[in-house]
Every structure is written in structure tokens, then in C-alpha cells.
Amino acid sequence: MKELLKQKEISILAIILLIGAVLSFVSPVFLTIGNFLDIIEGNVVLGILAIGMTLIIITSDIDVSVAAVTTAVAVSIGYLFTYLPDSWISVLLLFLIAPVIGLVMGLVNGLLVSIIEIPAIVVTLGTLNIIAGIVLYITNGNYINSTSFPKSFMEFANYELLGIPILIYLLAIVAIGTWYILKHTLIGRSVLAIGGNTQSSVRVGIDYKKVKLFVFAYMGVLAGIAAIAQTAYTKAVDPNGMLGLELTVIAAVVLGGANIHGGRGSVHGTLLGVLLLAIMQNGMILARIDTYWQNVVTGAIIVIAVSYDHISYKRSQDKLAKIEVEA
Amino acid sequence: MSDYILQMKNISKTFPGVKALDNVELEVKKGEVHALIGENGAGKSTLIKILAGIHKPDPGAKFYFEGEEAKINKPIDATLKGVSIIYQDLSLFPNLSVAENIYIGQDSNKKPWKKINWKNIKKTAERALEELEVDIDPNTTVERLSIAQQQLVEIARALAFEAKLIVMDEPTSALSSSEVEKLYRVVDKLSSRGISIIFISHKLKELFRVSDRFTVLRDGKYVGSYQTEEIDESKLINLMVGRDVSYEKNEKEVETGETIFQISNFSKQGNFKDISFSLKKGEVLGITGLVGSGRTELAQAIFGVNKPDSGELKIYGNDVQIRSSADAVKKGVAYIPEARQTQGLVLEQSIINNISLPILNRMRNKLKLIDRKSEVQLAEQYIKSLDVRPALPDLPASKLSGGNQQKVVIGKWLSAQPKILIIDEPTNGIDIGAKTEIHKLLRRLANDGIGVIMISSELPEILAVSDRVLVMRQGRISGELGIKEATQEKIMSYALNSGNKDESSEVLNEPNQVSQGV
Q: Which domains does chain B have, with CATH numbers?
């Protein structure tokens, strides 16, 4: 299985290299460090959300409300800016408040999924609409632009360490932290366990409801962090800016080798999935392909990746069935 | 100190509508292999789930571990008392490593943020595997192991938990004969080390091979506990089936007509082998056997959902090929599956809509729309002839009792006017009065000229309804009995292959290629 995962990740890496090679011929700009950092910085939000989504997908659930939650937190940040004094403490405070707002929304999703046992797709479709509706009501769909942002936040947004934008460090921290949770803590192993076999987990005494609650709550926290990243990157709050982003998030996770039926998925795989999507988008922009066609290509890749995943899942199920039938 | 590792007393369990266990007891001595025996539905699994803390027994139940009273409310309670249960379908995580699978659960009491101690996990796993003297790499993921290896991982997990009592639920059902031998040796070794084992199996030979004592359950009741050496197979079968027969046995000689249905040499890899039988007009053919003997797979093969590898099928003497279930219906075969609620009915829909479902295309008026009037007529006709109560055609099927739901399912298939009706466990989960009604109904259908094949685990039911009985075992027909000669004991001995030295069991004594081929 580990080898299989490796193979899958290596094949993603191969595709990335292939596309990269093609792109470096199409555009000389592509193979520059500057372009590369731009690509990554531009996809920090996608990356953070995809890492959170990885845990949810490992437990064989899904959360389609992530973009709405992130937008809601971003809007809250925008309004908070008028109350926060212009100082570094405010920026630090933001890193406390935003995740908590996200956490609350994640907990709502998680409670509905784990305690009332409503399918996650239904719950999160519902919360998606509720949150998006409230956000539009409050903002009227209007931008909050950077003129109302405190200077300290703008400094944070533009800060670079060793020539690398701060947001990239943020992604790295989230990635390493989540990797640690998944690999080295009991809760992380429980996430993998209930994704692998829920019934077995009940029998060995894992409280799968708590685990489900955790993954949705954690997704909420990461949505809060992603909202800060989004605000810092776009230097504005756009209530419509992340419309449909949840699909790209899910796509990145699935492209990264996670199984939509649960049990399989990794942080580094998901990062590769994000990178693949990012490079494709970047390449299509550099190659001046029309935006509409960019969507078509992205959509096609998602469908192919999920079909591939599902076909191999069905094959493995067929194999299982043969063992079970004992005549 | 008590001689007994476990004593369970006054164990009853009532599920809605059914008393699954009625005042059962179970006592297991230290270091013994204790077999738990009973037919399908005798209550073995329920008893084990109560021991495991998955089901709660009715009030009054008492548990003693090593003579001391204890409470079992949830799985961890049992684990802490040293009980490890190896379920038939295993409780492993295919995506995790062998080492993690062995260790998992040991720390389910700890804080979720606690760091995993990989070294400890590996050491524990290696020690447990070593104790079992098996050569499995603790780093491989479980999905790469064979079923036999996976079972050993489960046993290793029990050892790592320092289990004092290991329950094995049909541990040999998915193993080849050489793997089974190895498992016996593991069982011997564990018991020689003072670990008690509860061994559940349908294979009598196996029980005589491994067990020191055994407990027999029948219809949710405690029959008794015995020393294995004191008893032989025929006595054991007597204990298992020696019930007061709850229905009158079908004794009437029926006049059978022409052969309406015949299959020959039906085989499917891993399902069943060389099945041939015929069905005459006016006859009810009962097919029985233990769960997993291939009965349902055979029925599904006839119905076209589980295509056989080879074999011929004749209806009224004509060769027929059945390609799909829709094809089967067209050619006059109806199949009523066991899971009535999920596979047989659209629960939220009315009786009318359920009954007319298979023949909607015949219910259309000139405009090719569904003609409500003829639909209602049809439903009323079947409600009357099958005596569905309450006789309200608009009632959703979900509001009916189990027996009446089954009548609607039968009505639904009768509306398609089948020549052959196959019905799987027709009275599963239905109360006793309604059972008799369904039995009468099946007999009446046969008298009306429909060939009825009834699959059932309930021997009294088989004896009450059938004219002829086929017994299946491990994918083959292990015996055929006319109703006059059929008794529960005879059927059971065919189903279990208890070593009758007649011709039919010779066939059975061949190594079971079917299961090994899988």
C-alpha cells in the first residue's frame, strides 16, 4: 500500500515535470524562481484548505462549505479592521480570532455530521448556502478594499523572509503541523483508522463521532487561517472572490492521491495535487488560453482523476467480494 | 480463585419483536477451548456481542470474570477484562500497517493529542508475532496479507492485549485446509498457555478436533454444556435440532405434474458446483443449508444476477438463457430476496404502486400513460386474494407489518404471472401467526401450478412447506430427501457432513475444491 501510494505520488510528480517541461518551451518566464514563488504564493489559500480537506476525505466525508466559511471569516476580518488598533498585536490577535470564527462554523458542520449523522454532503451544502446568504446580506456583495486595512497588516502581507513571501511560510507551518497530527498523534491515526474501516474502529474502541467532529472542526480552523492568507494576498475582501473554490480544493486532494472512499491520503500528496493544478493554471495563463477553456481543462482533469480512483476502488472491491463468498 | 475465566448467567436479549436470547448461560474454564454450537439464528452471535459490550443484555444479566462479578457496558469494559473477540469478518484496518493494527485500541483511553510511540508499537507487534511464531513483516499494510495472515494479525492483537479469553467466530470459514491445520495448532498453543478460547463453528469435525467442552444453543435458549469426549456427532445434532416442532409437518402426498423447470450442472467458481435438480408442477422444493452454503448465490444465478460459469436451464422443456434479472422476469422467473425491506419493496410508496411495479408497461392506457384504474383494480385483487391487512390500497408499504409486507412482495411478483417463484427466507423476521399464513400461501401457489422454490434456514419451515428437500453444503447439493423421509436430524447431518458413510457424503469428503479455489 505504501508502495502504491508512492507510485501514485510519483506519477503526479512525473505529470508535473512533464507539464513544466512543456511550459518552459512555451514561455521563457515559466522556469524562473520569481514565477515559481508567484505560483506558490497564489495558491497558499488553496493549499491550506486542501490540507484540511485531506483529513475530511480520509474519513470518507466531504465539506463543500469551505469556500463559504473562508469568505465569511475574511469578511469578518474586514469588519474587524475598523475596530483593531494599528499595531503588530492586532495582526497576532487576528491569528487568534480568525481561526476561532472558522472553528465555530466547522463545529456546526461537525456536530450535524457526527451527532445527528446527516450525510456530510447534505450538511455542508446547507451550511454553504446559509453562510453565503448571510455574507451577501451583510456586505451587499461589496468589496472591502485595502484603504480601510491597518498599515501593520499591509506590512505583514508584504513581508518577505529570505526573499520568500510570508504566506508561503504560513502554508509550510500548516502543512508540517497537519503532517505531524496525521502521522504522529493518536487522533491522526484514528482519522486514518475510521477511514479504513469504521466498523473495526468501533470494535477497538475508537469513538468515531469524536474523530469526525475533529476533522470538521480542524477544517474550520484552517479556513480561518486561509481567510487571513486570502485577505493578505488579495489585499481586499471580495465576498464573491472564492465562489466555487471548494471544487478546486476537493480536486487538489483527489489529484494528490486521497481516496474519496476514505482511508488513504497524505499531506505531501495533497501539496503535489495543489502544485499540479497551480502549474496547469499558470501554464494556461502563460500560454494565453481563454479562461473558459481553463475551467474546462481543470474540470476534465478532476473527472478523470476521480474516475480513475473509483475504477481502481471497484476493482479492489471485486477482489474482496471473491474472498468473502465461501461456497 | 475460581476455575472459570468467564461465567455469564441469566442472559436474555429482546430485539423489537424478537427474543433473540432467553435466559442463556455460558461458562468457560481457564485454558480450555470451549465450542459454542447452534444453528443459524440460535443466538451465538448475539451472545458474543453481549460479551463484547456491543449489545446490552436485558436487565438481570450477570457476568463473572474469574469468579468476580463485573459489568460490561461498552467494548472497552470487555477488553479490560481480558476478552478479545475475533469476528468472522475481522476488525482490521486495511490501510494501516500490521504493527499499528496489532497495537491499535491499546491507547484508545489516552488523550487524542498524545504522541504515538512508534518504537513501542513496533516492539509490541514484533513480540506478539514472535509469540505466535509467524513470519509477517510488521511494516506491511494489512490489505496485502492473505485472509489467513490477517487472522493471525488479529490473534497477535489479542496476545498484545494480554487477552485471557479469545473468542473466534467461525475462524476457519475462509481458510484452506492447510491453513486450517495451522490455526488449530495456534489454538492448541494458546490454550496450553492458559488462554481460554471460545470457538464458534458450524463444522462439527472441527469442533471435535479442537474443543474440550461445548455449549449448545437452540432458538435463543440454552440447551446445555457438555464434555466433548462424552458425546458423538449424532447426539450433538440431536441437541442442536431437538426442538418441539412448531409447525405441522407437511405429510400430504401431492400430485405432481410435468417437469416445469430443470437446471443441470450449474457451476460458478467460488459459489457452487455441479448443481442439478428439477421442479414439477404443483411442487414446493425446499432448499436448505447453512448460511454460506451457496443457496442464495444459486438462486441469484437462476435469476440472472449472478451469472453461472456453466450449466443449462430448461423451462417447460425448452432451453432458456437468462441474461439479466429483467430477462428472467420476461421468461417467467420471479425471485423474492431475503432482504424484503431493502430489495423487495419501495417502502414509502403505496401498496398499489408496489404491486403494479413489475408490469407497469401493461398498465398503460391509449395515451401511453399509466392507467390508475387498472392499477387500483390489480392491487385490490391481490389484497383480497392474499388477504393483506389492513386492506387499504393507498397505505404506504412501510406501515404494514412484516407478514403483510411479505404478502405485498409476493403479490407484486404474482402480478408478473411467473411460472417459477424463488423465495429466499420467506418468513424472516415475521411473527409466528403470519408465518403460517405465508406457508399456506406458498402451498396454494404451488397448487395453482406455479413452481415454488423456497430457500430457508428454518428446518421446521422446510418440513412444513416442502414436498422435496435439497440440502446444500459448501456449494454442492449434499443430500436430497422426499418429505416423508425428511427429518430435522437427517437434514442437519447433510448440512454439516457429519460423516454418514453413504454415497452422498463420499462426494463431500473430497477436499473442498470450491473454497480452496477462491
A: 4-241 (3.40.50.300), 246-332+420-518 (3.40.50.300), 346-417 (no CATH)
